[in-house]
Every structure is written in structure tokens, then in C-alpha cells.
Amino acid sequence: MEAGELGNVFGDGAKKAMELWLESGEKMGRMMLELHEKSTSWAKETMLAPLFEAQRSAGKQVLQSSAEIARKMYGIDKSSGL
């Protein structure tokens, strides 16, 4: 095995590890947003409901944009199949 091939093997492995890390981070983020929604369901008919909804909306936007930026930085396609 040549040095260039060895670099490709390690590069591919690192990219796969980063892809798995991003996927698990996104999954954890979605789970936390679901937990937030469940734990604040008592406030649906109160004045606090818009505040909690705004928090969830901001959290979703941060999660999506962070994942998108990370994918672009590391050259990971979301449809790659995990």
C-alpha cells in the first residue's frame, strides 16, 4: 500500500466518523426538542405558550443551520445514507 492510498483510507475513515458524529448529534438535538415540547405541554393554554414555542423554533433553526454548516465544512452529503 502506497502512502497516498494510506492517506485516503484514513481520510475516508475520518469522514465516516464525522458523518456518524453529526448524525448522532442531530438525533440528540431532535430528541431534546421533543422533550422540551413534552415538558412544556402544560402551558398550551397559558400566556407562556408563545415563549416556549419561540424557544423550540429557535432551537430547530440553530440545529438545522449548525448541521448544515458542519456538513459543508467536512464535505458530507446529507443523503449519503446513514
Please give the structural blueprint.
Blueprint: H1 3-39, H2 49-74
Helix pairs in contact: 1-2
Task: Describe the 3D structure.
The protein is mainly α. The chain has one domain (3-80). The protein is 77% helix and 0% strand. It has helices at residues 3-39, 49-74. Helix 1 (3-39) runs antiparallel to helix 2.
Mind summarizing the main beta sheet?
none
Portion in helices: over 70%
User: Low-confidence parts lasting 5 or more residues at pLDDT below 50?
Assistant: none
User: Helix- and strand-based class?
Assistant: mainly alpha
The CA-CA distance between the termini, in Å, is 29 Å
What sort of overall outline do the alpha carbons produce when their principal axes are compared? elongated
Strand content: under 5%
Q: How many separate helices? A: 2
Report the C-alpha radius of gyration, rounded. 18 Å
Number of separate strands: 0
Mean pLDDT: 88
H/E element sequence: HH
Our count of domains comes out at 1
In short:
The protein is mainly alpha-helical and 82 residues long. It is built from 2 helices and no strands.
What are its keywords?
mainly alpha, 2 helices, 0% strand, 82 residues, single chain
